[in-house]
C-alpha cells in the first residue's frame, strides 16, 4: 500500500528526496554506481535483487536524471548506467549514510568497509554540518525557514 502524501511532503525537501532515492534498492544502486558498477548484470550480482525490481529502480533513477544510459564502452550491445551530474551530487548523502552506519551499526571489532581517500590512503574525515565559520552545528543550532 502506497503511503499517502501530506501537505508537508509537498514543501519538504527531505520528503521529495525520499520519494526519489529513499528506498533501499535505489540507494544501493547509486552506491554501486559510485563504486564503478554500470551494467545491469553487475548490479544484479552485487545486490542480489530480483530482475524486475532492479529494472524498475533503474528506470526510475534514469527518469529522475540520476542515472543515464549510454552504449557500453566495450562496443557490445549492452548499455551502461552512468551517474549524471545530479546523481554525482548525491555523493555526500551516500557518504553521510555510510559514516553513520560505520559509527552506529557495527560492533567495535566487527568487520566492515571504510571509505578511503585515494591520494592519502586514509579514511575520509567525518562529515558534519558546519556554520559559516567552519564550526560544527548541532541540530538545536539550526532552524527550518519556509521560503515564499
Summarize the topology:
Blueprint: H1 7-11, H2 13-21, H3 24-34, H4 40-47, H5 51-63, E1 67-71, E2 79-83, H6 85-88, H7 91-104
Antiparallel strand pairs: 1-2
- In terms of DSSP E residues, the strand content is 5-15%
Could you state the order of secondary-structure elements as H and E? HHHHHEEHH
Query: Which strand order does the major sheet show?
Result: 1-2
What general form does the structure show? globular
**Count of beta strands:** 2
Main sheet summary: 2 strands, antiparallel
Rg on CA atoms, Å? 18 Å
| Spans of at least 5 consecutive residues with low confidence | none
Proportion of residues in helical segments: 40-55%
- Structural class from helices and strands? mainly alpha
Number of helical regions: 7
At a glance:
The protein has helices spanning 7-11, 13-21, 24-34, 40-47, 51-63, 85-88, 91-104, and strands spanning 67-71, 79-83.
Question: Can you offer a commentary on this structure?
Answer:
- The structure is a single chain.
- By secondary structure, this protein is mainly α.
- 43% of the residues lie in helices and 7% in strands.
- It contains 7 helices and 2 strands.
- The protein has a two-stranded antiparallel sheet with strand order 1-2.
- Strand 1 (67-71) and strand 2 (79-83) form a beta hairpin.
- The longest helix has 14 residues, at 91-104.
- The mean pLDDT is 92.
Amino acid at each position: 500500500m502506497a503511503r499517502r502524501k501530506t501537505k508537508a511532503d509537498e514543501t519538504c525537501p527531505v520528503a521529495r528526496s525520499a520519494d526519489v532515492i529513499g528506498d533501499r534498492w535505489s540507494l544501493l544502486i547509486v552506491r554501486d554506481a559510485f563504486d564503478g558498477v554500470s551494467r545491469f548484470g553487475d548490479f544484479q550480482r552485487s545486490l542480489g535483487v530480483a530482475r524486475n525490481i532492479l529494472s524498475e529502480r533503474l528506470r526510475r533513477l534514469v527518469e529522475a536524471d540520476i542515472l543515464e544510459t549510454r552504449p557500453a564502452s566495450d562496443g557490445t550491445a549492452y548499455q551502461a548506467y552512468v551517474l549524471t551530474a545530479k546523481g554525482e551530487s548525491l555523493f555526500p548523502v551516500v557518504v553521510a549514510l555510510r559514516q553513520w552506519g560505520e559509527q552506529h551499526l557495527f560492533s567495535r571489532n566487527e568487520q566492515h568497509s571504510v571509505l578511503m581517500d585515494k591520494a592519502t590512503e586514509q579514511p575520509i574525515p567525518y562529515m558534519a554540518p558546519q556554520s559559516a565559520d567552519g564550526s560544527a552545528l548541532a541540530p538545536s543550532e539550526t532552524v527550518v525557514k519556509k521560503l515564499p
